[in-house]
Design a protein that fits this description.
elongated, 69% helix, Arc Repressor Mutant, subunit A, mainly alpha, DNA-binding, homodimer
DNA sequence: TTTTTTGGTCAATCATATTGACACATTATG
DNA sequence: CATAATGTGTCAATATGATTGACCAAAAAA
């Protein structure tokens, strides 16, 4: 068979719809990080610091290696921002009692306050979005995002 | 009145749900950029280059200033990656015929091929997600993301 | 003609990431 | 016990990136 047209994987129309979805992800992610980023900037901190604070808040006592795994950054890339948070007394790293090699990361009370403030803007943002979109939309959103996150 | 408990804006349970949503955004965005990032890395390019290619593909002939506005980066921060794309013959910047100051950015044919390859992984990713989640979920997802993007 | 806009560039500085290496204490393994 | 492996902290060298502030040229608008 010659001159056979191969079916495109996606129609032109579908491609346009999905390109819109790509842009929604881009613009919404930027809107989503804008609030915390503004707060961080005033303290000379950035997105990495928020991520550290967030995941340490979420899982107090987590080790440096575990944090590296979640964030997917190199030890050297984590080193400086983490040291800054330690020296600013926002994070503490006490020796584990069960394994003396491991440092357990925890937020100090000041760290907890900052993390709550940073993450708080995002919580309110999402709460507003879901309140307006409806709880069915929220469920559907979570379903789609879980699929996207785990592929 | 003393000792009055102020109502928290969000219940503990709701906060936990919304924290999960925060993580969904974080992990899904990372999964979403992983494909293109791997392709870009082989050529010594990064996320910024993809964004330039994407928005130039989306709106051929757009000016440097318009691109700056969309990407929300400084002229100096755009300068180097854009120049790289120009010198790699992936992007061209011809003088506008109606306004000689303005350079109209367009992809070359090689630029179109690379952009299609980069964005293609994301289109397929989203197509798969929506195929599995269902079209109602897709609609709801778009609704929520639009709200998040425009707040 | 003067002013403004757009585009491009430069230099200095600072921040960050990367690679590769090393030291120390602790734990696991033979 | 001796050795290997692990977790952490650090360093140096390098490369890349962003930032600030300034400047110039071309073209358009006033």
């Amino acid at each position: 068979m010659i001159d056979q047209k191969s079916e495109p994987l996606l129609t032109e129309e579908r491609t346009a719809e999905l390109r819109e979805a790509i842009e929604l992800l881009f613009f919404s992610y930027r809107a989503f990080t804008r609030g915390p980023d503004q707060i961080l900037e005033k303290r000379g901190l950035n997105r990495v610091h928020h991520r550290i604070l967030y995941f340490v808040a979420r899982q107090p006592g987590l080790s440096v290696n575990e944090l590296l795994g979640v964030l997917e950054v190199s030890k050297q890339a984590l080193h400086i921002p983490l040291r800054q948070l330690l020296s600013m007394n926002l994070v503490k790293n006490d020796k584990s009692k069960t394994d003396g090699r491991v440092r357990e990361l925890r937020l100090t009370s000041a760290g907890k306050r900052l993390e709550a403030r940073l993450t708080g803007t995002q919580l309110l943002q999402l709460d507003n979005v879901f309140a307006e979109a409806g709880s069915d939309a929220e469920k559907a959103w979570r379903k789609a995002m879980k699929l996207l996150a785990t592929d």
